[in-house]
Amino acid sequence: MPIPVSACIICFNEAKSIGTALDSLMWCDDIVVVDSGSSDGTRDLVLAHPSKPRFITHQWPGYSAQRKFATEQCRHEWVLALDADEECSAELATLIAQLTLQATQQTAQFRMPRKNYLGGRYVRCWSPDYQTRLLNKSRVQWEAQSAPEVRRPLQGYSTGQLSGALLHNRLTPFDWCDFNDGPRMAEHAYILAQAMARNGRRANWMQLLLRPPVTFLKYYILRGGFLQGRFGLAICYKTTVGVILKYTVLYASEQWNMQIIDIPHRGQLGHTSPPDANATHIDPLTPPAGHLSGKLDSDSNADASAG
Fold it and tell me: What is the pTM of this model?
């Protein structure tokens, strides 16, 4: 017997892209959209969509907490979790439909590759960019204050793998912010550095000196960035800049003895003074742009560098 599957989407001002995400979920009989205060017409678009999703407004508590809240609103135990700029490919939908209760008895979640696009072009060197997005909500443990979000199978359960891909930004037109968005990249650097600090990571000499060039060579040579000409070269430069920012922010947190790195408001990112070590406020109604997921050691991660 096939497993019943719900789908959830977390979003904020995603009227331009969420329709495509919902189109890719027409096979799903229970869709929940959790919005953190959009003002661009996202709500009206969602409620008018033929997939008949349920729309819930929920103040932004952070990446992991918002995703967890969204899954808890779903009717079924198995949930496919998407961002508003992602799609479930037809191949992935077919593979999910083939999963049975018997075959998934010992599985808590499934990971799948994600194909990333910028300006309508596939970004080869960011693949496979594995994401764990199909989960049984009663078989996983969520890590609090986790960005990138982390879920671990409960004891006795494992993580499976599906070959079908998620599609990220496939139909999003070119935007200068894809290649030159200082505030967004700085925002992601703060979030990732905060997670690294909480995990005991340090920006030592070796990391500061070698991580950027190693990252460039990894994605340009080993991941095939050179096969996409100037586009691939620019992507690898952008990826490397994201890594440089991440480690320099981590260094700053150590230099000023900051126990927790504050995630500033986007409008504050241009200030030259270091963040207040005692400040921990995050605007709940203004989630950071783009979604962060994956491993901290994944220096591309497409999210960390591109949003």
Answer: 0.82
